[in-house]
Amino acid sequence: MSSVGKDSVGDFGRHVPALSSALRPRPHDELREWGGSPLVRRKRVLDLGCGDGRLALGIASLAARVDGIDPDPEAIGAAKRNARKAAVRNVRFATGAAQRLPYPDAAFDLVILSWTL
Q: Three-state secondary structure along the chain?
């Protein structure tokens, strides 16, 4: 049994600072390694552990909708700022943990994890 309390689920992500997106692959290069644009085209996508929204924003033009969730509220704040700056309207970001997703079953066609601890 883990010594981590039930109320601390998701706290780990808040203690790990997000690395610069500049150190990670460009979204379309990363997507190409996973099979290319057909993977996300016109689909409802969940970016689990989205950080500052690098991948979610990078694939948004292909997807029907992208939701990003991350336990770090500062990263989510950055993701929302990045979305506003890029004028991307089919992406939503929320603070939360993978252990307790705030979405109903079958809300997404695809879940992606990229550079997630």
A: CCCCCHHHCCHHHHHCCCCCHHHCCCHHHHHHHCCCHHHCCCCEEEEECCCCCHHHHHHCCCCCEEEEEECCHHHHHHHHHHHHHHCCCCEEEEECCHHHCCCCCCCCCEEEECCCC
Query: What is the pLDDT, as a whole number, of residue 109?
Result: 97
State the CB neighbour count (10 A cutoff) for residue 49.
20
- Residue ranges in the chain modelled with pLDDT below 50: 1-9, 12-19
Instruction: Tokens 């879940």: give the residue.
Output: 111
Sketch out the chain's domains with CATH numbers.
41-117 (3.40.50.150)
pLDDT of the residue at 37: 80
Q: Is 16 left (phi over 0), alpha (psi -120 to 50) or beta?
A: beta
77: Cβ contacts below 8 Å, ≥ 6 apart: none
